[in-house]
Write the structure tokens for this entry.
Amino acid sequence: MRENSTGVLSSSMASDTAIINGVGGESLGPQIEAFLSLASGLVIGFYYCWQESLVMLGITPVLAIGSVLEMQF
């Protein structure tokens, strides 16, 4: 059959691979980076000044909402 030829299957696999790579790598990396930045900031805040870490915990929901709104726009 024509839709099962080598060229059609190769191009289909190449486009599917690009889509899967874009979904997994590009969106997951910034989320992990943001989480690790938040965690390290909390550790540093609790170590040096607990008041600073409480302020950071209070601002975190605002930052999360801002990130969600930025992704939607």
Q: What stands out?
A: Residues 6-48 form the longest helix (43 residues). The chain has a mean pLDDT of 82.
